[in-house]
Amino acid sequence: MAVEPAAAGSARASGTTEVADALAVLPGQRAQSPGGFEPCPGGFDAVWEQVLADIGRATEIDLICHIVPDGDALGSALAAGLALRALGHRVRVSFGDDPQIIPESLSFLPGQELIVPAAEVPAQPDLVLCFDVASEGRLGLLHQKAFAARTLVVIDHHASNPGFGTHRLIDPSAPATAVLVDELLRRLGVRLDQELATCLYTGVATDTGSFKYAATTPQTHELAGRLLATGIRHDLISRQLWDTSSFGYLKVLAAALDRAVYEPEAVDGRGLVWTWVPYQDLALYSVTVEEIEGLIDILRRPAEAEVALVLKQDPDGTLRGSCRSKGAVDVAAACQELGGGGHVYAAGFSVREDVPSTVARFRSALG
Questions:
Q1: Looking at residue 43, what is its pLDDT?
Q2: Residue 322: enclosing H or E segment and its boundaries?
Q3: Cα separation of 348 and 230, whole Å?
Q4: Which of 39, 63, 165, 245 is deepest in the core (most CB within 10 A)?
Q5: pLDDT at 301 > cutoff 90
Q6: More confident residue, 17 or 266
Q7: What is the model's pLDDT at position 128?
Q8: What is the rounded distance in angstroms from the CA atom of residue 77 to the CA atom of residue 105?
Q9: Which residue(s) pair with 65 in the sheet?
Q10: At the fourth CATH level, which superfamily is domain 19-241?
Q11: CB of 96 within 8 A of CB of 118?
Q12: DSSP state, 117?
């Protein structure tokens, strides 16, 4: 892994997304991000400089991502961890689940030797970098430790992010948090290699739906091109992410699709399709809840429905909701009413209610 001198104030490299583009404040204005917080006075270049200064002073850095991490969350944290380790920092990567489960679809990611249980993160860390966490509740068991840190840097791209932490690098226009990590690496002077590129490509590919979602831009493809130029096997990464599963997953999928409900009058006549996966199905076929994250992308296919919702049950009865919109409905706003959040067209929430009550609440929140 090649390391070059950092250039905190220089222009960004092609393929990254400038935080200030989405959250800039003109002289004399007071503006808010889509998440509702006020940008730092002095602009986001100033925030980058503060973050780089904090990193430069730190010998030990804790990198955390959201519970039940997806490719963008874990890929972003591991890419940053590998880069910071190469610069000589002591690094821990963690997330607030117990037990911590790395989805089989992400088992290929490099840098997993950096991952430690949430219990091994210090009670009062010096510096915490937080990746892809849209709200405090997504920190899980690491919530108290993250907020006890001397410095808590939030690096994220969710429009619903309320703006927690001491330093905020939040760009709702970025298609993935990995795009912001690419900018972090550039400013740190760390040159891309295959390990870093694998982590970043996984993050970008995951959150763009393999480059098919509306947030994908020409700059996204430029970044992908730079990552591919390192020699990574994007075909193998894509196969692992989307085209590999256990036979048990097929049985759970079949039952969930058989359970699917189509409500043509919902969402002001635009249509809602929903289903749920009881924990008993997962246990019967030895399938983890992480393995069925892609179910929502199958359920969203019917042309008759604008919105799709999948409810997945945890062992304690908690329902995790994942939803998608085809472009006419802001599902992030609906999920916020249920204590969650996310993107305009892709969002989620967790509740401790029964299925009928949860669907009724979600339907009402959609308007």
A1: 65
A2: strand 319-325
A3: 34
A4: 63
A5: yes
A6: 266
A7: 98
A8: 16
A9: 95, 131
A10: inorganic pyrophosphatase (n-terminal core) (3.90.1640.10)
A11: yes
A12: -
